[in-house]
Amino acid sequence: MWSTFFLHEEDGRPIPPGAGVGPGAGPLGLTGVMGGRGAGAGAMGVKRRAKASTSGGMSEVQEGKIKLAFFVAIVGVVLTVLGLGTEYWVELSPPKTFYNNQTCLAAHYGLWKGCTRTLWVADISPERESCGPAELPGESNCTYFKFYTTGENAVIFQKTTEKSLNVAAAMMALFSLFLMVMGAICITTALSKGESFFLKPASVCFILSGLLMLLSLILFNQSVLSFLASDHSVPLHHELSWSVSCVGCAGAILILGGILFLLLALPFSPWRKCFPPKNESDS
């Protein structure tokens, strides 16, 4: 039985039984052959893993960078939702002695609705000449703007809002929010599939959403100026409030997040291109 068992060399010549297993012979027995096969399989596994990593896979370091940039973008999204959902974009306040010496009226509005608040003059700081701020306790009356439904302008302190500018600012803010959702879907897909291809469309979505939020702020400011110029019978002091600060910071953070995603999508490291290591620059 064992006389029919032959091992073959690489050139095809048979190796007689017992060759390589006797005293002084090299390790050409069954153990040596199996060891050689195991080493070959290990080398093939390393090659396969290297090929998989270069064919579009995502390393743990790159995945961690993407998650960090995604966290930055999520902060911008949260600030955007907070700013869009509140009506403290601008505060309007006449002189605190314009109506009577006990109460005064203040108003504040955002993209969707406006509120008037009756404040006690005794609660206002003596150094402040106008009524407010709107955060003081008092009776409040809030209504949604009718120019989204019936097309009617709102009248606050005998001044009329500019419907076209307000609607344009609101529509840009909504489209910006839609782009944020699309960018978040792209990043989630990139992390789940391990593909860096989705980073480029995500970066475009976040950068455009940030620019649209800043443009919405500009249009809203123009609508406020047009609102103040509509009537001069009531002197008003106006100031942009904390909702505008949230939206402005959100726009800047979203643009930053989009730039980070764009840098991560590049096939090379811009930092290493601009500032190569000393050993590479010397060579």
- According to DSSP, the number of beta strands is 9
Give the DSSP E fraction (strand runs of 2 or more residues).
5-15%
- Biggest sheet strand line-up: 6-5-4-3-9
Global mean pLDDT: 79
Q: What low-confidence regions span 5 or more consecutive residues with pLDDT below 50?
A: 1-12, 20-55
**How helical, in percent, are the residues?**
40-55%
Gyration radius over CA: 35 Å
Plain-language structure description:
This protein is an alpha+beta fold and 283 residues long. Helices cover 51% and strands 13% of the residues. The chain contains seven helices and nine strands, in the order ββααββββββααβααα. The strands form three sheets. The protein has a five-stranded antiparallel sheet with strand order 6-5-4-3-9. β4 and β5 form a beta hairpin. The radius of gyration is 35 Å and the shape is elongated. The two termini are 63 Å apart.
How do you describe this structure in short?
By secondary structure, the protein is of the alpha+beta class. Helix content is 51%, strand content 13%.
